[in-house]
Design brief:
Chain lengths: ~350, ~450
């Protein structure tokens, strides 16, 4: 290797770096990030979109949880920021403010369908017939008893209710970076907590804090990763009861069994009928400023909510998404076309 | 000390024990203890080796036993008739001599979109009817036998060669991932229907077809030729991740290696020895010890935040990994240069060569095998690195094979991470191990190349 060659190599590298700055200006691939619950659906929609429309590239779908995705989404406008954030909960007002502060003013909310949240245990563990109250009593830091708040004394499900299995309490719940956590707290913990007269007597601002305070003795673990991590926890510890998305449970029915909530089984039918209490809508948020800049963004958004991609009999339904009904779908499509911003 | 050199205590028959000097008695007494200590240490050392080898063996057996079956995948052999009644398309556009490239491209895209509207699933259903007479009675079940991505493979065949329309082709189509799982016994067959992924009808058909040899385990080219897939899990492959890793390694080779070698030559041969260069040297060693995830954070902030490079692109991954590899290359190059005997330099200088000539004409050529070894090991290390890539958005699902370093992509180690998290555990546990095997094979061949180069060009003085 002589000096000439070395110099050439260094110069070539420097030049390629300089070109890097130029190349980003015309990104032609849609970038998506966010909720790991929405990720499988979004990925399938992206793949089908890329395969159906020859003129557009297949969108790239990242994960990072609802909060992580929305934070990335709100970093600003420009081709090195993402175009779509997946979320398993509605956007919070604080997040909209953060977005606006960074110049993201056109945020189009798109609801894509529904998903159930299920409690599941290992196939060889006991059968759970849960009520929200039971889950609250299993995870709370303090529980009301005879008019007083005492430190959580329960270590076995049987102590909470005779109908529950004789099994130590070990609850694996999604970490706070997951949108699932918020829905779980709202629809299970708070609901269960409110059944106590002592709690209802609390002032409103204290109620949430009291209900959501978690015990710290190791009987409740927060899972920051995705459902595979929760499943691994179940495989390692027979007693563990995990929180999953319905579609994840469906794909692993041979390993985990599902608990009923209020005696209702989590099935697609029950979630559509609204009898299964723990279900939630899934969303994605489109950056209006990027429509017309990133090729295919408008088309992808419309394709995702079309009956073809996410209706009954669609690939997304096969993957476990619970479809929107026709009226809702029409309203959402109208919102997209009208670029209705939050 | 002179007493120590005396004849050993038990050597002479004439000396009685009483005649032994005090020191000799001490030595005799401690001899057993020292032998015992040596034995103990040998035992501990040996068991350490055995334990670590056992652990490695368990790891390898675990990965290979899970992963090797995934290189073969169940496929169904069907006679597909490319029915002109179903595939009604206009003629494939040909570029006219006076037509502009982008106009032709436009026409071609329109034609491809037209082909895209054809329902290729119908060809598969017709093919299935030939081997399963009752397929039309159970449409929903029949649609679940061949994995959904194969319809695009058929479409690609038509796009590549429209003359195929009207012909019948014998094709091996991948079956659904759950059929592969069921045939490989990765799901307990005795489980009740409610826990099975496949409907009873599909299971009955699959048993029948595999008995007839229509469904067979075939070598999975999909694993190597396809990019990742989520809508058609059975067709998920490593091609996208492989190309992503390749682009990143190219960036590392063209950036970290020349920069590292240049820095090392300067520091070793030209730089004055003072406090400043000492500081630089200490910091290069520190840099080599920085955890790789820190480079990822740096990459996200600097390359994506300031330089506005695209997210999820191999160029950014390559830059981050270059930073990580740089100290390795510098350290390896410097130690190789140090090992070249000074006589080479002195001889060159003595014959009137300038310092520059002495180094580039005489020292560097002798150092090249060592530098190459260092560089290859650095690249191999970068190839297996996943942590920094997670922070620059390379964790995304990418269903296309990237055609350049600025296009979104994943990398092999990240693909392993992604597959490990896939919902369909029964199928992807094996797939993940297969990806690990591919990555291990690449790393081992890079290391083998490094060893071979060293052995071949190594000079001893």
């Amino acid at each position: 290797m002589n000096m000439n060659m070395l110099t050439k190599l260094v110069v070539a590298s420097a030049v390629s770096l300089a070109f890097a700055g130029q190349a980003h200006a015309n990104r032609d691939t849609i970038q998506v990030a966010g909720s790991s619950t929405v990720l499988p659906f979004s990925s399938i929609a992206a793949e089908e979109f890329g395969n159906t429309f020859a003129q557009f590239r297949t969108p790239v779908v990242g994960s990072g949880g609802s909060s992580g995705g929305l934070r990335q989404f709100c970093q600003g406008v420009g081709t090195n920021t993402i175009d779509i954030a997946n979320s398993s909960r509605p956007m919070r007002p604080a997040e909209i403010e953060a977005c606006n502060a960074n110049g993201v003013n056109q945020i189009i909310e798109v609801k894509i369908g529904y998903d159930g949240i299920v409690f599941a245990s290992r196939i060889d563990a006991g059968i759970f017939k849960l009520k929200p109250k039971h889950v609250f009593l299993a995870q709370a830091a303090q529980v009301p008893q005879n008019g007083k708040m005492i430190d959580n004394p329960y270590t076995n499900w049987q102590q909470i209710d005779k109908s529950l299995p004789d099994q130590a309490i070990l609850l694996a719940i999604p970490g706070s970076n997951h949108g699932t956590r918020e829905v779980y707290e709202e629809k299970v913990i708070i609901e269960g907590c409110k059944t106590f007269a002592e709690v209802q007597a609390l002032p409103k601002e204290e109620l949430n804090n009291f209900c959501l305070a978690m015990r710290t003795d190791g009987n409740v673990v927060e899972i920051a990763g995705d459902y595979t991590e929760t499943l691994a926890r179940l495989q390692a510890q027979k007693n563990a009861l995990g929180v999953f998305g319905l579609s994840f449970y469906e794909a692993n029915r041979d390993r985990i069994k599902v608990a009923t909530v209020d005696d209702i089984e989590p099935t697609v039918e029950n979630i559509i009928a609204g009898t299964y209490p723990v279900s939630r809508p899934l969303y994605f948020y489109v950056k209006g400023e990027h429509i017309g800049v990133i090729p295919g963004l408008q088309q992808f958004t419309e394709y995702f909510v079309s009956d073809l991609a996410s209706g009954f009999g669609s690939p997304l339904e096969a993957a476990g998404l619970i479809p929107l009904d026709d009226a809702e779908r029409a309203a959402i499509l109208a919102d997209i076309r009208g670029k209705k911003s939050l | 000390m002179t007493e120590m050199k005396m004849t050993p205590a038990n050597d002479s028959a004439t000396t009685s024990p009483a005649a032994l000097s005090k020191t000799q008695q001490k030595v005799a007494a401690s001899l057993n203890r020292r032998h015992r200590q040596e034995k103990l240490f040998k035992g501990i050392g040996l068991s350490a080796v055995v334990i670590s080898l056992t652990l490695v063996a368990i790891l390898f057996i675990n990965i290979f036993s899970k992963g090797l079956p995934a290189f073969w995948q169940s496929a169904i052999t069907l006679d597909i008739y490319f029915d002109p009644a179903i595939i009604q398309i206009s003629e494939k556009p040909q570029q006219q001599p006076d037509e502009l490239d982008n106009l032709f491209f436009q026409r071609d895209i329109e034609w491809q979109s037209e082909v895209g509207l054809i329902n290729f699933n119908r060809l598969i259903t017709e093919g299935l009817k030939k081997v399963l007479p009752d397929a039309s009675a159970h449409r929903r079940d029949a649609a679940r036998i061949v994995t959904s991505g194969e319809r695009f493979a058929l479409r690609q065949m038509v796009i590549d060669n429209p003359d195929i329309i009207g012909q019948t082709q014998r094709l091996h189509l991948l079956t659904d991932a759950n059929i592969d799982v069921w045939l490989k016994g990765n799901i307990d067959r005795s489980l009740p229907d409610s826990q099975q992924q496949l409907s009873p009808k599909v299971r009955e058909w699959v048993a029948l077809l595999s008995e007839q040899g229509i469904i067979q385990n075939r070598f999975s080219f999909a694993l190597f030729m396809n990019p990742d897939s989520r809508s058609s899990l059975a067709s998920a492959g490593l091609a996208g991740a492989f190309m992503g890793s390749l682009y990143m390694m190219l960036v590392v080779i063209f950036l970290a290696v020349p920069m590292g070698v240049a820095a090392a030559i300067y520091l070793e041969e030209f730089a004055p020895k003072n406090k400043l260069t000492d500081l630089v040297e200490v910091n290069i060693n520190n840099l080599a010890a920085v955890p790789s995830i820190v480079f990822g954070l740096l990459g996200a902030a600097v390359f994506i935040g300031w330089f506005k490079l695209p997210i999820s692109a191999p160029i950014v991954g390559g830059l981050v990994l270059s930073l990580m590899t740089l100290p390795t290359v510098i350290i390896a190059t410097r130690s190789t240069l140090k090992a070249i005997p000074p006589s080479i330099r002195q001889a060159a200088l003595g014959l009137g060569a300038s310092k520059m000539q002495a180094i580039f004409h005489h020292v560097l050529p002798l150092a090249i095998p060592g530098i190459l070894t260092g560089a290859i090991l650095g690249v191999a290390q970068a190839l297996g690195e996943a942590a920094p890539l997670l922070l620059i958005g390379m964790k995304a699902f990418v269903a296309q094979v990237p055609t350049g370093p600025f296009e979104q992509s994943t990398a092999l180690p990240v693909q392993i991470f992604l597959w490990q998290g896939n919902e369909l555990r029964n199928f992807f546990e094996a797939r993940t191990s297969a990806a690990i095997i591919v990555l291990l094979a690449l790393m081992l061949s890079l290391n083998a190349l490094a060893i071979w180069l060293r052995k071949k060009y190594e000079k001893r003085w």
